[in-house]
Each structure stands twice: as structure tokens, then as C-alpha cells.
Known about the structure:
7-stranded mixed beta sheet; two-stranded antiparallel sheet; 11 strands; 27% strand; binds cytidine-5'-monophosphate
Amino acid sequence: MTAIAIIVAAGSGKRFGAEKPKQFLELAGTPIIFHTLQRFEACSAIAQIIVVLPAAETDGFLAKAAKYGLQKLKTVVAGGNTRTASVWNGLNAVEPNSAEIIAVHDGARPFVTSEEIKRTIEKARETGAACLVAPVTDTIKEITPDGMILQTIDRNTLRRALTPQCFRIEILRRAFRKIDLLNEQATDESFLVEKLGYQISIVEGSPRNIKITVPEDLILAESLLKLPASRNSKF
Ligand code: C5P
């Protein structure tokens, strides 16, 4: 039984403010989504890729993908109004009994490495659920609604949740069955699995695995692309 990646790229990219969604903007001449897909294509732990796109982008996407050598990408589905709805559409496109592990990944994170994908899948095989994370380097304050600092949280006990987040398929399906899909505002799948009461293992990843969200991230991304792989680990 194998691992299937669901790459969600159906967001509108409102915070980025460009005329097309950020995942279709070019990074070194190639749309960001193809950089991300190529990372999963290159990872031996991934058997198949499902991509979730805005409805207007699904037609002709497989033909474009073939030009980028993406042979593991077999399925393109339209996304929903929320990230959770988009992942759900991807999950429904998984053929029965074809996957042991589902790796959910943001289309806007093109710097994940094969090794990070593999380690997260392996951990999910062992424990059922695993989330790639990165350290928190700022001092974090909890605030009150009226704009005061309530307290400082020990950052050693905090991690930023990255993707991929990997789950045994039956656990992810069970988590989705528990929620009200139309009203769920979860920003990741671990949150849904946490709500089941399931323990999720962490896998330490690189802060280089950024999510391109605002225009400054694209400038950083152009520089990260030029860094040699050996400089990958600390940033
Ligand atoms: O909005 P945010 O940057 O957190 O989105 C993370 C990922 O989820 C992006 O790759 C985005 O395209 C995807 N997404 C989606 N469907 C939505 C909203 C976001 O596939 N409705």
C-alpha cells in the first residue's frame, strides 16, 4: 500500500493581491505550482499525485503537467470555498484501497524536500498521523482583544505547522466525517485530526519550506532557489 499526495492549490491568493492566484505566478520562469509538483514527483515515497485547483484552471492542466515531466500526477479536481473543502474534494478522488497514507501539501510551498516528505510519511506509517514543523524564532505574546499583552509563551514548546501533513487514510476520513464541511475554517488538517482526540507526531523540518503568501515571499523564494541543497537545513 502506498502514499498518495493531495496538493491543494485552489486558493484565490487574496493576501498576495496579484491578478492571478499566487500558485500560478512564476518563480525562475516556472509557475510555483509546478515547482511544488516536481518536488513530489521526485520523491520515491510518493506513488501518485492528486492536485486540487480553482475550477477555471482544471481544463488542460494534465497536458501542461506532462511538459514538466509530471508522470505521477494522474488526477486534477476542482477545489472548494475553503481549504478544508478543497482537501475533501481531493480525498474523494482517491481510488478505493489505493492508499495507505495521504500526504496533504500546500501548492504554495515549493521548497519542501524529498527527505522531508519521506520522513513525514514514515512517521505517519508508524503512528497514524504526522505533521512537518519548524521552530519558532520570534518571541510569541498572547494578547487580549483590547490590544494588551497577556503573557509570553515559551517558544521552545511551540512549532510552526508546515506541510506535508500525513495521515493513515482512515484517520483522515474519520476526521472529515466529524466536521461540518460548509462551516469548517481549519487552516490545516492536523487541527481536524486533533479534534478527533488523535495524537499527532511531529517531524522537524526546515524553515526553508516557506508558504508563498505575500509579495515579499516571492523575493525570498527567488533567493532560496539559488541556495545549494547543502545549505538547506538551517535556512
Ligand atoms: O490560504 P493559505 O495560504 O493558507 O492556503 C494554503 C493552501 O491551500 C494554498 O496552496 C491554497 O491554494 C490552498 N487552498 C485551497 N482551497 C481554498 C483555499 C486555499 O486549495 N479554498
